[in-house]
Amino acid sequence: MAKQQPINLNQLSGYHRQEQAAQYLKQLGYTTIRMQELTGITRLVAHFPATLPAWQAVYVDYAVPPISKEFDMLFINAEGHIINIELKSDVHYDIEKIHKQLRNNRYYLTQVSQHVDLFTYNSDLDRIYHLTDQDTLEVIDLQDDTWRTSVFYQVVMGFKSVAVADLDNVLRVADYLVSPFTQLARFLKGQYLLMQPQQQLQAELLATPTPGIYAVKAATSVGQTLMIYDMVKMLREQGQVLLVHIGALKSVQATLRRQYGWHILPERQFFKKLKRQRLQPYDVVIITDAQKLSIRHVNSLRRYFAARHTRVLLIGDPNQQSKATISNRDYFATLTHVFGQQHLIKLSDEL
After folding, report:
1. Could you give the strand order of the β-sheet that contains 212-217, starting from the edge strand earlier in sequence?
2. pLDDT for 211-263, tens place per residue?
């Protein structure tokens, strides 16, 4: 796949006809930039002196499909500092959505640079929103003469953007795609990053110290297995952890057990131990693909752990249930309406 090329916004804004701009973008491989974006870019560039160094190498509409992430405009200088400008064109655009998007962008960009400045430009309002270090939004009206004293103006005026060999490498895209099953060495060395949704869910799970059985709604996605195994790695430093795998163990799981001392059981062996009261004490038990557990299985868990000080996390995706599995009385099918917007439910003690 061809590497994305940066755009010289000074040159792009100098074209007076739409056809010229389209031809220039086509030569660089850009075929999906919308007219609203071009209008917004042209209007923004017009506020600054001509041939500004910041505009000479800008990555526009940079998309990372594997992690469902997009950036409207990215600027990088020789020192690795980054500017991100998102583009909007709606006078009624929700300011909270702007705040949320910039905070999300900060999560990913600060993984690769300690110097990140984040802004949104609403071309219909001719207004800049700046995400401050205090995580608040500063509003800058470009029709106000004082805007040239703003952080936005100073940052852009002092920036010289450069082209990079491979933007995917700069943003460490591959580090989000590490799988413990196929890249065990990288996983054990900690050479990976969690995507923001997985990081947020993991933080929520780690913040539940109370013993009990918890149903966890986790949509099947890139990075889910990495998040679970990263959590097991952390929890093992604090106590005894058991990972229960639905189905036969994979070779990597056998390696983790044999060479690294991980406690991993296939679910058949796990439930046999429960039935015979032979499971050793654990602080945390994590069951993956829990949408495949039956109501009978969950009731066995409740009976066994009722008087034990153990956190049991049933991590599953309710949307992965087929009609056949639902007819077999899968427990997660009974929780679909209960989850709502929640990702974590503590099950009651009633059977």
Report:
1. 263-266, 241-245, 284-287, 311-316, 212-217, 344-346
2. 988 888 887 776 889 999 999 999 999 999 999 999 899 999 999 999 999 99
Strands (E) in the chain, as ranges, are 58-64, 69-76, 82-88, 116-122, 127-131, 137-141, 212-217, 241-245, 263-266, 284-287, 311-316, 344-346
Report residue 304 as tokens.
Answer: 């066994």
Q: Which of 303, 295, 305, 306 is nearest to 335 (CA)?
A: 295
* DSSP secondary structure letters along 6-36: PB-HHHHHH--SHHHHHHHHHHTT-----HH
Cβ atoms of residues 346 and 214 within 8 Å:
yes
How crowded is residue 132: how many other Cβ atoms within 10 Å of its Cβ? 10
pTM for this predicted structure: 0.80
13: left (phi over 0), alpha (psi -120 to 50) or beta: alpha
